[in-house]
Amino acid sequence: MKYPAGSKTVFTKKEIDYSNRGMNLEEDINLSNEYYRSIDKAYIYKKPTPIQITKVDYPSRNKAVIKEAYFLEPSTTDYNGIYKGKYIDFEAKQTSNNTSFPLSNIHKHQIKHIENVIRHKGVAFLIIRFTRLNETYLLEGEKLIDYINNNTKKSIPHSYFLKNATLLKNEYRPRIDYLKIVDEILEVDKK
Amino acid sequence: MKYPAGSKTVFTKKEIDYSNRGMNLEEDINLSNEYYRSIDKAYIYKKPTPIQITKVDYPSRNKAVIKEAYFLEPSTTDYNGIYKGKYIDFEAKQTSNNTSFPLSNIHKHQIKHIENVIRHKGVAFLIIRFTRLNETYLLEGEKLIDYINNNTKKSIPHSYFLKNATLLKNEYRPRIDYLKIVDEILEVDKK
Which of A78, A152, B13, B179 is the most exposed place for a label (fewest CB within 10 A)? Predict the structure, then answer.
């Protein structure tokens, strides 16, 4: 993104680091999911971005162009699917923060959704990347809920991840082998 | 929708009957899913419509308006979620046809997706409404795949539904109690 001399970035709230596309977590997860599908291991997809469409043009028959639409707040997490007959559900977020993960990144509806999935015996988790540290963690939904229920802080300190989450290595294929950790969860919980 | 005198509807390919909103299948299913969530029975959601966003305006800080976007072909089915610890996945379609359900309503990707879900031990099915007959059926994924593999026809005759699918009653709450049939499937398959 180039800005004219004198202007500056106003996207101060955005946590996504566009300066380094190769490091983009969403891309890494989408490629990992594609890989899992290609070897018939799991069918996990990113849900489309929820939007409200308010105006559609039909410049020609069978060709629709959306001319006005708005982003909606998601009521669920971004990723879900099936693995080993189990319902898998997770949210992925990255932060440029070094010391903690701001909980404002996860909507209240999404936390409620994670609780619902756990109660109904699905496997729910977060994948969190600290972009500047180049560290990616899988935090089980149960650990997220535990933290929220027992802390008033608006962010989860990095140290909590060190103690309670699993570090995911950057690999070639899949880029992030998060199902290896899901295997461990399923083994421990005998889910 | 009102058209000026002399004009006529060009949406001849659309199967959705907008003239009777109360009969809309998508609405019935969304309300049923809301009801299931409200009684903590199942967490099944409709996925947002997949679109490709090509232009976004930011008229003010934190307010984005999509100014150009296009509909994409879905790679999965529209509905998925969790029920009794099981992965649930289905597509819902209505047809104004009286004698058969045109398979052109289901994309190839979606059929492949249903096969994948079955192979990985999820519960996959179609909910099909014949709007003029006011009949709604749940057709198990396995029966859909069977039909496709053993027939060259481009549509599934109504008689196939009579023999192989389960008729869903219109009720008050939930509008369509499709999980009752899923219970039977789970019981038979001991999934």
Answer: A152
Question: SS3 of B135, please?
Answer: strand
Per-residue pLDDT at B63: 85
Domain extent listing, chain A: 21-48+74-189
Please check whether residue A35 touches B, CB under 8 A. Answer: no
Domain boundaries A21-48+74-189, corresponding CATH code: 3.40.1350.10
Residues in A touching B122 (Cβ below 8 Å) = 82, 85
B62, B66, B71 ranked by CB distance to A64: nearest: B71
Does B88 have pLDDT greater than 70? yes
Query: For the domain bounded by B21-47+74-189, which CATH number is listed?
Result: 3.40.1350.10
Number of C-beta neighbours around residue B61 at 10 A: 10
ipTM for this model: 0.86
With contact defined as beta carbons under 8 Å apart, do B81 and B45 qualify? yes
Whole-number average pLDDT of chain A = 89
- Please, what's the b/e burial string for A92-112 (b: 16 or more CB within 10 A of its CB; e: otherwise)? bbbbebeebbebebbbeebbe
**How many Å apart are CA A91 and CA A111, to the nearest integer?**
10
Chain position carrying tokens 């903590």: B40
Q: pTM here?
A: 0.86
Across the interface, whether the CB atoms of B68 and A71 are under 8 A apart is answered no
pLDDT band at B191 (very low <50, low <70, confident <90, very high): low
